[in-house]
Structure to design on (230 residues):
C-alpha cells in the first residue's frame, strides 16, 4: 500500500486523520487527496481552533494523524497537540500547511493594536480572546453575536450593513455539513460558532475614524438584534 505526505506526515490510503470541521475544509481536502479519510472533531469555543480533547475522542485504531489548523490568525494549542501525539502515538501535521496566517502578512502589529482597541470598546458581542502563550495575528477579527441561533447574527449583520459596515460570515457551512465531506457527527461548539460568528472589518490601513465608526455602529445596536414581533 502506497504512502503520501501531508506536510511531514506519512499518510496511507485508508488511514484516518482528525481535522476540524469549522474552517477545516482545506485540511480535509488535503487528507482526502492523500487517499485518507478526514474525521471531524469539535473546536475550542474560545479560539475557534481544533480542541485537543475533542481530537483525542475522535481517534480510532485507523487514525494516523491529527491536523490542527490555525484560524483567523489564532494559533492552535500546539502544546496540547504535542502531548496528544505522544500519548496516542499519532503523527501531528504542521498547521502551517494550510495556515491562514502564513506567510505572515505585513502590518500584524497594527492589526493587533486595532484588535486590542476593539476588544476594550465593543459591547454586546463576544470579542476574540488571545489564548495564553499562543500567537494571534488577527488576519480576521471574528466576534460572536450571542442569541438563539442564526437569525440573531444575520439580523445584526444586516443592521450593520445599513450603517455602512460590511461584516462577513467567516465559515458559512462547517465541512461536515458540506456535500463533499458530509458526516453524521455531533459537534456542538462547531455548530454554535457557525451560527454566531461574524468577521468585522479590520485591516492595518484603517484610520482612527474608521475604527471609531465601527465601534459606534456595533455598540448602537446593543449587540443582539432581535427579529420584530409579528
Amino acid at each position: 500500500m502506497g504512502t503520501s505526505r501531508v506536510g511531514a506526515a506519512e499518510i496511507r490510503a485508508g488511514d484516518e486523520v482528525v481535522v476540524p470541521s469549522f474552517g477545516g475544509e482545506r485540511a480535509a481536502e488535503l487528507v482526502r487527496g492523500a487517499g485518507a479519510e478526514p474525521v471531524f472533531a469539535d473546536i475550542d469555543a474560545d479560539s475557534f481552533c481544533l480542541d485537543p480533547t475533542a481530537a483525542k475522542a475522535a481517534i480510532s485504531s485507523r487514525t494516523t494523524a491529527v491536523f490542527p489548523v490555525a484560524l483567523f490568525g489564532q494559533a492552535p494549542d500546539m502544546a496540547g497537540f504535542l502531548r496528544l501525539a505522544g500519548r496516542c502515538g499519532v503523527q501531528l501535521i504542521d498547521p502551517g500547511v494550510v495556515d491562514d496566517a502564513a506567510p505572515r502578512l505585513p502590518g500584524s502589529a497594527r492589526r493587533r493594536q486595532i484588535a486590542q482597541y476593539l476588544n476594550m470598546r465593543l459591547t454586546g458581542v463576544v470579542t476574540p480572546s488571545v489564548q495564553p502563550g499562543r500567537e494571534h495575528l488577527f488576519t480576521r477579527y471574528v466576534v460572536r453575536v450571542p442569541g438563539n441561533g442564526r437569525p440573531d447574527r444575520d439580523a445584526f449583520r444586516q443592521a450593520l450593513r445599513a450603517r455602512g459596515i460590511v461584516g462577513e460570515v467567516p465559515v458559512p457551512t462547517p465541512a461536515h455539513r458540506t456535500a463533499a465531506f458530509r458526516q453524521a457527527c455531533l459537534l456542538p461548539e462547531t455548530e454554535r460558532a457557525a451560527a454566531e460568528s461574524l468577521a468585522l472589518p479590520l485591516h492595518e490601513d484603517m484610520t482612527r475614524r474608521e475604527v471609531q465608526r465601527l465601534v459606534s455602529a456595533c455598540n448602537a445596536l446593543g449587540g443582539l438584534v432581535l427579529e420584530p414581533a409579528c
Q: What stands out?
A: The mean pLDDT is 88. The two ends are 62 Å apart (CA to CA). Helices lie at 25-33, 52-58, 78-88, 108-121, 150-162, 188-196, 208-220. Residues 108-121 form the longest helix (14 residues).
